[in-house]
Design brief:
- This is Diguanylate cyclase.
- With 434 residues, the chain is an alpha/beta fold.
- The chain is 47% helix and 18% strand.
- The protein is built from 16 helices and 13 strands.
- The strands form 2 sheets. It has an 8-stranded mixed β-barrel, surrounded by 4 helices. A 4-stranded antiparallel sheet has the order 2-3-1-4, sandwiched between helices.
- Helix 3 crosses helix 4, helix 6 packs across helix 7 and helix 9 runs parallel beside helix 11.
């Protein structure tokens, strides 16, 4: 009897999205039968294929005001229209094979599960995609309802691939994504903000260092500093750490704290060669950045900017970032070198190269992976080496995992490389640098 009721309920709700799968009206905890089929199956398959899975939340904050102003019948029609346009927007922005599920998670919002294959999807920016989806829906609704102003909030979280239970990881990621979307409403949102604030105050990030190797001599030439959140916390994964920081407005503070802690540990260590410090374009475009960086440097006399490479991370366009180029010029005047990360991973990294003419170009691991078995990838590598030569840049190849890949770099005279084949990241003070 219960089984038949659930089956009929799923069938009726399924008609809302013509094949997409509805969520329960329960706010934070999806019922197990929904997760087992089809969401759990889709997420499990994506993770086992080596992909990342993200949970995106789109929440209509002013649903009650709309219901009062429009009346029951017109409000019901508006909600159907919004859901229809969300469906169209999602298909405009994403390939169908990357959509695991789109459904109601409760009455005033939608949940979208997507898989991200960074080897295939060379350029993928969740913030850009969510912005486009929201703009599409808002524009379409405005054409039909000129007097209606939607208030759509978004948030996202990645499903933890390393958790022993994928089911529990889905529930946790979904709950945290909702909490970010409604950060002023739920206790989980308050917890995430509190975790981030505590992390910043106590400088609880864990720093690792991965060597950058001279391909010709196998000598260590530099270290790239990598950040992780507190162990066994919701922010341990760097992907979670920086996505929560961005969505809670703490990205700049986090990146500046990482830089300060990295220089502090360098001062304590015996490492005297070059280091690479990561910064997102958003942080690099902050008008305060170079002044704040100088204040940090003044605390650590003896660490020369000439030994530090500022690595522009994230595969996102720098277009519209007002102070980005200005700050890059100031960094060069201060003595820093500039690197561009993820080269070969889409148009935006090549655009950044043409704008700033970096000292170092880092070739994305999607180009390097299995390059010994793929003649096209080696041709791409040669093309990027020509780009680097024109720009006067050194080249670092990322993600080297075996000797065969390394041999391709050697015969193409790549300058530098990093990856598990050479060394895994280790703690700076007790690991590599000592």
């Amino acid at each position: 009897m219960v089984h038949r009721f659930l089956k009929n309920a799923k069938s009726r709700l399924g008609k809302l999205f013509d094949g997409f799968h509805p969520f329960s009206s329960r706010r934070f905890y999806p019922p197990p039968f929904i997760l087992r089929n089809p969401i759990l199956k889709g997420v499990t398959g994506a993770i086992h294929s080596g992909n990342e899975v993200a949970v995106l939340i789109f929440n209509l904050q002013n649903i009650n005001e709309l219901a009062i102003s429009l009346g029951v019948r017109e409000h019901s029609q508006l909600m159907k229209t919004i859901k229809k346009y969300f469906r169209l927007a999602v298909f405009n922005e994403l390939e169908q094979r990357d959509i695991i599920s789109l459904h109601d998670f409760y009455g005033d919002g939608l949940t979208l599960f997507i898989q991200i294959n960074y080897e295939r999807q060379w350029t993928f920016d969740i913030n850009f995609i969510t912005k486009n989806i929201v703009q599409f829906v808002e524009n379409k609704v405005y054409q039909l309802y000129p007097k209606v102003e939607l208030c759509l909030n978004t948030g996202y979280m990645f499903v933890d691939k390393d958790h022993y239970s994928i089911h529990d990881s889905i529930v946790k990621a979904h709950r945290q994504a909702i909490a970010i979307t409604e950060k002023s409403l739920g206790i989980d949102g308050q917890n995430l903000v509190q975790l981030m604030n505590r992390l910043l105050i106590k400088k609880e990030v864990i720093l690792l260092a991965q060597p950058i190797i001279d391909v010709a001599t196998n000598e260590v030439r530099a270290l790239e500093i990598l950040a992780r959140g507190p162990k066994d916390s919701p922010l341990e994964s760097p992907m979670q750490l920086f996505s929560v920081a961005r969505q809670t407005g703490k990205l700049y503070e986090l990146e500046m704290m990482v830089i300060e802690k990295a220089l502090e540990q360098l001062k304590q260590s015996k490492w005297r060669q070059d280091i690479f410090l990561n910064c997102t374009p958003m942080t690099l475009s902050n008008i305060r950045f170079t002044n704040d960086l100088k204040i940090i440097l003044d605390k650590f006399i003896g660490i020369s900017p000439s030994k530090i490479t500022i690595e522009v991370t994230e595969n996102e366009s720098i277009e519209g970032l007002k102070y980005f180029i200005y700050n890059i010029k100031r960094l060069r005047l201060m003595g820093f070198r500039i690197a561009v990360d993820d080269t070969g991973a889409g148009y935006s990294s090549l655009q950044t190269i043409s704008e700033i003419m970096p000292d170092i170009i880092k070739i994305d691991q999607s180009v390097i992976k299995n390059i010994d078995k793929n003649a096209l990838k080696e041709s791409m590598l040669k093309g990027l080496l020509l780009v680097a030569k024109e720009a006067g840049s050194l080249v670092v190849a990322e993600g080297i995992e075996n000797e065969a890949e390394a041999s391709v770099l050697a015969r193409n005279n790549v300058d530098l490389a990093q990856g598990y084949f050479y060394a895994r990241p280790a703690t700076l003070i007790k690991g590599i640098a000592t």
